[in-house]
Amino acid sequence: MPPSLPPAIATRASDPAAVERLVADGVPPLLARIYAARGVTSTRLLASGFEHLAAPGTMLNLQAMARQLADAIAARRKLLIVADYDADGATACAVGVRALRAFGADVEYLVPNRFEYGYGLSPEIVRLAHDRFRPDILITVDNGIASFEGVAEANRLGMTVLITDHHLPADRLPDAACIINPNQPGCGFPSKSLAGVGVMFYLTLALRAELRSRGAFGPREKDSSSLIPHPSSLKSDEPGLADLLPLVALGTVADVVPLDQNNRILVQQGLARIRAARAQPGIMALFQVARRDPRRATARDLGFALGPRLNAAGRLTDMTLGIECLVTDDAGRARTIAAELDRLNRERRSIESGMKEEAVAAVEARDYGESFTLSLFDPAWHQGVIGILAGRIKDRFHRPAIAFAPGGGGEIRGSGRSIPALHLRDALDRVAVLHPGLILRFGGHAAAAGLALREGDFERF
């Protein structure tokens, strides 16, 4: 029986030279040691002003995609955002919908139901998009970088595909019209930890700049070189994109991406607006049902109160509910949806508790020796909760864990979480190379990944 690990306090090492520099710059010694242990080696990295954000021009293809969208808006082409069904995908979709509509675009959104279509821009979801919306352009948010078949199907049906994503790419890229992803080859954007919502936010900045250069908003009241200008420097009809930062903060924290300097700025600026009651009605409603005070909002509130409630829609039903909560400007409707999300989250907790008990009992019933990973499958498990379950098992036994649930059509779908010693996506890639055909689909990051297998191949996997 593998031992479960008790909570442990890890001592972080700090560079004495970095501590000394921080203290010399006026940081109290204790705080200097904490900062240095977390990789903050100079006070410059503590700056939270917009002028310290990474420049949009460093993101490969960002300007090209902005031009394509500006052309599409001018030509009144129909746009459709295809979102992922987690909090990052929902917030990225809300940022895209709100900004594009403010720019005058004809845009709708579609999010795959995980139980019917699975993850990403699949051929099935492309055909659904074509039949239901007849769009000219598909824009993926928080997905698409691994959607080879889906992009091919969209091309066959005459739809242009623009991919915005942050997941790690494979050795080749889909045949999309344009791709922005800080992790794609050749991209010099310095923040490789940008979440999907952050990628979409940068696209809106670039698109506004492109539209401004075409005279879409008229001359500015004041000249400004700031990445996110002060409202006083904007023409009255020029959208203020800083209003979207509460959504960016929520998606960034909920996706558990590393808070490097760029992400810290985005989160801090978003939290400042939430505390000032300048967030979207849906975010304020989520604070209300979670019984948290938005005037004292912290990243913990976003990660442990709002994020789980938003994710509950995608886990148990359909993330369309969560996205609608974030895009509506009707405070009453937002409160109604937030209450339903709160109910779904309570149901999710109950399901998760039972699955965790079963999983722990299964692991503790066997002796795995010293070196092992964990792959668990139960036909009764809920597909929407396996990611949380994998995280709980990983934390308890300090081993990479993948939990599987039935996916329909003879497939099982897995969600994995890993420890720092194992890059999970690279490990799955290695399995796929050594055992062709075993893994039907996979994608993800170092710490988290998803995949699909045939049910009969579970033991082999």
Layout of secondary structure:
Layout lengths: L15 H9 L4 H9 L24 H13 L3 E6 L3 H16 L3 E5 L12 H11 L3 E5 L6 H9 L3 E5 L13 E3 L15 H18 L31 H10 L6 H15 L5 H9 L9 H18 L3 H8 L3 H34 L9 E4 L8 H12 L3 E8 L2 E7 L6 H11 L4 E6 L3 E7 L7
Parallel strand pairs: 1-2, 1-3, 3-4, 4-5, 6-7
Antiparallel strand pairs: 7-8, 8-10, 9-10
Helix pairs in contact: 1-2, 3-7, 4-7, 4-8, 4-12, 5-6, 7-8, 8-9, 8-11, 10-13, 11-12, 11-13, 12-13, 13-14
Order of helices and strands: HHHEHEHEHEEHHHHHHHEHEEHEE
Q: Helical percent range?
A: 40-55%
The CATH topology label of the largest domain is inorganic pyrophosphatase (n-terminal core)
Q: How would a textbook summarize the main sheet?
A: 5 strands, parallel
Q: How far is it from the N-terminal to the C-terminal residue, by CA?
A: 21 Å
Helix tally?
15
Uncertain segments? none
Oligomer: single chain
Structural Rg: 22 Å
| Lateral strand order in the biggest sheet | 2-1-3-4-5
Number of strands: 10
Q: Could you say which overall geometry the principal axes of the C-alpha atoms support?
A: globular
CATH class category name of the largest domain: Alpha Beta
From the helix content, strand content and strand pairing, which structural class follows?
Answer: alpha/beta
Mean residue pLDDT: 93
Portion in strands: 5-15%
How many domain modules?
3
CATH level-two architecture of the largest domain: Alpha-Beta Complex
